[in-house]
Amino acid sequence: MQGFDVRANDVHELPALLAFIDFGYARRYNGFRPEPIGDVAAFISERSDGMCAKRWLLREAFLDSDDYRCVADVLRRSETYGMVSFLLCHDGKLGAVVPKYGLSAAHFRRVFRSALGMPPKTALKAWRLARAVLAIIERRGAITEVAMDLGYASPSHLSSDFRAAMGLSLTRLLDLSDRQQGRSSEAKGNIHSVLPGDDDESAGVGVAERGG
In which domain, by residue range, is 139 found? Predict the structure, then answer.
């Protein structure tokens, strides 16, 4: 199959994705020395098998292939990768943690917005919500525990942020996830008791459907 024509804009999005991959999984080197890459877009195009750049990177990261390591070695040198990795590893107020990066808070915000197209505060809020939802869906912790660990004032605060971002309640999402994966309803009962006010009409529909 002819390689997908990967453009510079596609590659521009990869450092942030790689930062999340590295944050979730320990880097694996094992003495591997990546070959130099002059043009990342061309390198991926020749090997993408018709995939877009982000999907290719995810596939190769899962395989921990030599091609992935070569591309990752280049992406880790970018400013975007450095900034995203820094924020993922340092919780707290931007004004307090950014000086550790070596820039003023104002300059950090300008460079970050230029690189990722959004202010750091907006990105951090979205990333925190994504981490919370994934942790809850994967059952790594109770909602209260996840909310507290990630700095939410309460489980209801987490639920409100999710509803504002996604347009549905967190319990509705979990109802759908449980039905898709065939999980029991025991956990959902605990979820509804922890999130008062979140069992809205959409969640009620899920209960009615199961009852019918």
Answer: 121-211
